[in-house]
Amino acid sequence: MNRSIPSLAFCAFTSAGFGQLVDWQCQNMAPACVTMSDMAFVNTSTGYICGGLGLLWRTDDGAVTWNDISVAADHSIRTLQFLDAQHGFGLGDGLLMRTVNGGSSWTDLSTEPFGAPISVRFASGTEGWVLTTDQEVIHTMNAGDTWDLRSTEDIASRLFGFADGA
Question: Measured between alpha carbons, how far apart are the two ends of the chain, in Å?
Answer without folding.
Answer: 57
